[in-house]
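## retry 2 of 3
previous attempt timed out at serialization; input unchanged, resubmitting
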Amino acid sequence: MTIEISICEEVDDVVVAAFAELIPQLSSSSSPPTAEELNEIVAHEASTILLATEGETILGSMTLVLFPIPTGIRAWIEDVVVDESARGRGVGETLNRHALQIALNAGTQTIDLTSLPTREAANRLCQRLGFMSRETNIYRYEA
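## retry succeeded, writing output
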């Protein structure tokens, strides 16, 4: 079967169940989103959830965030996760390429993402797609 990428426009039980499986594979410190939280993201004008599916099965997801700032349109790719059973099959690459096309079509000049150094396969993918490491400090404030 072929991996297909779609924009999540409706949150149903299948989507909620997929995120319940995927988010723990992405982050041990984050709880999977509820249907209400997913609906909030889907409804938000800056966020686009992309789903990678094969048939009826959701294999992975990512969130593309587009927002205007004084220096142009900014794009961030966040929370990319592919189910461990589907890794190594091009799902992450297909998700990223689709997000890149959406962002470029929206007029962004740059697209940012972060990846932990320990995620070696993800870092290789980023470099293969043309992402370059930036000379910057990333700071996080935690409430």
